[in-house]
Amino acid sequence: MTKHMIVENVSIVPDYSDEYLKSVEDDEPDQWITVSVKVGDTQIYGNAGGVRGFAWAFIDNLLDSIESVNDGERKVIEFEYGPTWLIIEPYNSDSVNIARCTVPQGREDPEKRLDIDSSQLVYKQVWINEVLHVAKEFYAKTTQHNPDLANKTIMEDLNKRIKQKNT
């Protein structure tokens, strides 16, 4: 259920656990990571520890969401091979709806989402700023933890995308 008040804060928090950082040490930045997403006071993901997905792929999809937001299109990010999705969808010219979706038919049709599928409106620029912040943080944290990753193609590409989106 969408709350119609548009909020001005969003928090996307990957859990850089010891397990995840061990995979970074082993040159594997795209391993399972737990993520929480909070928009205003609405916990989209985060109760009971968040949702799990592949770290690099999640960040890559978040960066894709910037283009979707700017183009007025829906972006669907899959977690855990599809039992749950994060939906970023247009609301009006200044804002987007951020939603959790737990049924396949709700990915494209908000009316088919379950009552437990929380959602919240946020200003587009607030979403974009948080995505860029999280992507920069991910790149910095992984390459600081394992400097060799900075020379891996997927991390070089990620860094280029961050810089392109930041302009």
Which terms summarize this structure?
five-stranded mixed sheet; 9 strands; alpha+beta; 167 residues; 29% strand; 4 helices; 36% helix; four-stranded antiparallel sheet
Topology:
Blueprint: E1 6-7, E2 10-15, H1 18-25, E3 32-39, E4 42-45, E5 51-54, H2 55-71, E6 75-79, E7 84-90, E8 95-101, E9 119-123, H3 124-145, H4 153-165
Parallel strand pairs: 1-9
Antiparallel strand pairs: 2-3, 3-4, 3-5, 6-7, 7-8, 8-9
Helix pairs in contact: 2-3, 2-4, 3-4
Please describe what this structure looks like.
The structure is a single chain. By secondary structure, the chain is of the alpha+beta class. The chain has helices at 18-25, 55-71, 124-145, 153-165, and strands spanning 6-7, 10-15, 32-39, 42-45, 51-54, 75-79, 84-90, 95-101, 119-123. The protein has one domain. The chain is built from 4 helices and 9 strands. It has a 5-stranded mixed sheet with strand order 1-9-8-7-6. Strands 2, 3, 4 and 5 form a 4-stranded antiparallel sheet that branches.
Spans of at least 5 consecutive residues with low confidence? none
Class derived from helix and strand content = alpha+beta
End-to-end Cα distance, whole Å, is 34 Å
The ordered H/E elements are EEHEEEHEEEEHH
Largest sheet: 5 strands, mixed
Total DSSP helices:
4
Shape: globular
Q: Provide the helix percentage.
A: 25-40%
Write a brief structural summary.
This protein has 167 residues and is of the alpha+beta class.
